[in-house]
Amino acid sequence: MKNLLGIGSRIKHDQFGQGVVTNITSKLYWVTFIENGLETIDIDSEFEVIEAVEDEVDSVSFYEVEKTLRTLLKQYSDISEVVPIADKWRGGSITLNPADPNLANKEIPIDSFFHKIVMVRDRIRVMEQKINASKNLDDQEKIDLQQYITRIYGSLTTFNVLFKNSTQNFKGEGKSK
């Protein structure tokens, strides 16, 4: 018989992937999986234990579990946080006017445009994490690629005007003084 895992234990299940034990009953583990959400699995199920917190039932607060889950989701998926558009732009549109008068203008809802900008930012962040975690790149290659990513962020700072919260803005290298 396996040792009983405590709340906060991290596991890898063949069907559901990686997850964190968030509750325990006499027969079940309640596990929040990165890709599949909350699932219950039998205590005797087959799974790999990544990090065990043994016999510590009820010793981890819900806040700590939520914080751990949020960290795992940010690190291992491309699920993005909710990023609000600045109120002054909500419901607005962008109009693209071609130089050729024979061509029609193109109007785009600014909310859709903003959503695509946020998706680009989130995918760059995931790429950055994968580069930093790569075992196939040496340190100098990681530094070189990180510098390119910083420059990409810098090129996208024009769109910071769309963000409601400045903490979510693009940040580049900055200017030397």
Name some characteristics of this structure.
20% strand, two-stranded antiparallel ribbon, 3 helices, alpha+beta, 177 residues
List the helices and strands and how they pair.
Blueprint: E1 10-13, E2 17-24, E3 28-33, E4 37-42, E5 48-51, H1 62-76, E6 93-96, E7 106-109, H2 110-133, H3 139-155
Antiparallel strand pairs: 1-2, 1-5, 2-3, 3-4, 6-7
Helix pairs in contact: 2-3
Description of the molecule:
This protein is an alpha+beta fold. Helix content is 32%, strand content 20%. It has 3 helices and 7 strands; from the N terminus they run E-E-E-E-E-H-E-E-H-H. It has a 5-stranded antiparallel beta sheet, with helices on one face. Helix 2 packs antiparallel against helix 3. The radius of gyration is 22 Å and the shape is elongated. It starts with 9 loop residues before the first strand and ends in a 22-residue tail after the last helix.
| Strand line-up across the major sheet | 4-3-2-1-5
Number of strands: 7
Give the uncertain stretches in residue-range form. none
Alpha-carbon distance between the two ends: 64 Å
Please state the CA-atom Rg, rounded to the nearest Å: 22 Å
Number of helices: 3
User: H/E element string?
Assistant: EEEEEHEEHH
